[in-house]
User: What shape does this take?
Amino acid sequence: MSVISLSTEQAATALQIQRHIDALASDGGGRIVLPVMDLTLDRGLTLRNGIELTGQGDDTILRKGPGQIYPLSGYHNYGMCDVPLADATGLEVGMTVSVHDSKTHGGFYETFATITWIQDNWVGLDHGIEADYRAEDKPALTTVYPLVFGHRIQSAAVRDLRLEGNRAASDRNMGGCRGGAIYFYQSRDLEITGIREADYDGEGLSFQMCRDVLIRDCRFDGNSGNGLHPGAGSTNVLFESCGGRDNAKSGFFFCVRANHITVRDCDFEHNDSGMSIGTRDCHNLIEDCRIRDNRRVGLLVRPSPRPVEVHTCHIRRCQISANGDAQVDITSDAHDLLFEDNRIDGEGQGIGIRVAATASSIGLVDNQISQCEHDVQIKNEASIGAPPQVSTCGYADAPASAFLHLSVPDLSPT
Assistant: This one.
């Protein structure tokens, strides 16, 4: 593997770092090693195929630059690779930006793109905008972006960095479907290790429509959204020895159809909820985790009625304690969930395990429940039954058919 170790002079700006990344990628890939430094970024760093971006741990700090809002001069329609601004002063080609409005902000209707040209207050983008942006909804381009990201790439990694989100200097947050402090989209064979991230106005880690991802020894704390967010069909993922603390939403948020994921030996504390599982989030394994002192539910199975219900998940050997409401809340039509050998402690308040009347085939095996107002609150006794079969759960246990919904690159040599 080619390794390029940058000096502080060679890594003095985001643009300089990006040029090294692009040059190494065009030469077949390799590792970029950042020096000990504290750098404020004016744009996100784009990973390419076969690139590893590595720092010196806590001594390599990347900070998000201040966010600014550039109002659009009026209506602009879906698919156009440019936007008209009232004033483009301060923007440069190569900057990463978002476009959104008061109505479509968040989700996949937000546009995240790189500036390709600027002319007479028109700003070119590297792909089409994701929605119609109407004048009455106050559309704007903003300098909101992930610090490190990759779109449609393979065999990439980001390691040993400290990322500071600089929320106090943010005028607009970023929706988790299009970004996060670290973000990947339609990519595969990724590794994220040794990251310490905090204080981003959005999600700490988000990836959408990705497969074959390893996340180890990382923390995502103090963000305005969720801490960790595997989303939109992401499949075959391992989280190990990670954590999320003091996030305004969930410490860990399984989004739509996040399947065959293992979360092992992780900590989620002082968030709104500890872990949240929802629409079509199936075949997942949560083991040896600690979920404590979250403001509402420790582990929430969100309302997801059939045919998009949560099913076939295994939660074992976890410590779930001192959360504000229920320690575990199983709602809606969830079924075939196995809770095994967990230690659940309300520390004098709330409900240990709450099960909705419409849930079914919920297995409770050898759990220790203590200091709760109600150990188990069941709306329908029939929902608790013999331990369900959940043998095909988690990372490295996905059949080939589990990936049919994804369209991600396969750049392996033929």
